[in-house]
Amino acid sequence: MNQAKPIIVLTVICIIASALLGLTYNQTAPLIAAAEKKASDQAMMEVVPGSTSFTEVACEMEGVLAVGKDDAGNGYALKVQDKGFGGAYTVMVGIGTDGKLTGTKLMDNSETPGLGSKTGMPDFTEQFKGKDQTLEGVETITGATISSNAFIRCVQTAFKAYETLGEGA
User: Fold this and answer.
1) CA 38 from chain center: how many Å?
2) What domain count does the chain have?
3) For residue 54, what is the enclosing H or E element?
């Protein structure tokens, strides 16, 4: 009986802790989802200048998380994901009706601070504006080639998705 008591106490503690974690998750999940949607909507407006609202467009393509068509007709915002050095790498890409990039924004990454995270800095992201799908003249960041290439792959995936929507042909 002396050996059973600690086991029972630890089991009860584990059950209570698990229940509290589950309750916390259920309470915070909607708040986290709303914050993520707000950040995504804001990023869409940043990468498609002049936009105020978007209509969600279905796109069944690997790596494409979301597509929004600007209601004012300025273009599309595409949230795309690829694999970087540190794991998942998410970029918001804006493509205008002329088939050229209107903006890019690094959304989420697990890259090395000070190296791979530089792909989110304006010095890197601004070079994409006005480029077509050839991405001619885009340069990677020295020392962060894997992260730079993940960003570029995200942009290329966005162009492929844009073409499947019938806009980039």
Assistant:
1) 13
2) 1
3) strand 54-56
User: In angstroms, what CA-CA distances link 135 with 22, 130, 140?
Assistant: 46, 9, 12
133 domain-assigned: yes
Q: Give me the domain span that covers residue 121.
A: 46-164
| Nearest in space to 36 (alpha carbons), one of 113, 119, 110, 107 | 107
CA distance 44 to 105: 9
End-to-end C-alpha distance for the chain, whole angstroms: 76
| Helix, coil or strand: residue 157 | helix
Encoded tokens for 92:
């918001």
What six digits make up the tokens of 115? 């190296």
Conformational region of residue 83, where left means phi above 0, alpha means psi within -120 to 50, and beta covers everything else: beta
Residue of 124, 121, 111, 112 whose CA lies nearest to 152: 124
| DSSP symbol at 111 | P
151 within domain boundaries: yes
Q: Is residue 106 part of a domain?
A: yes
pLDDT digits 0-9 by tens, 25-66: 999 999 988 888 888 888 899 999 989 899 999 988 999 999
Q: What is the pTM assigned to this prediction?
A: 0.78
Does 14 fall in a domain? Answer: no
Residues in the chain with pLDDT values less than 50: 169
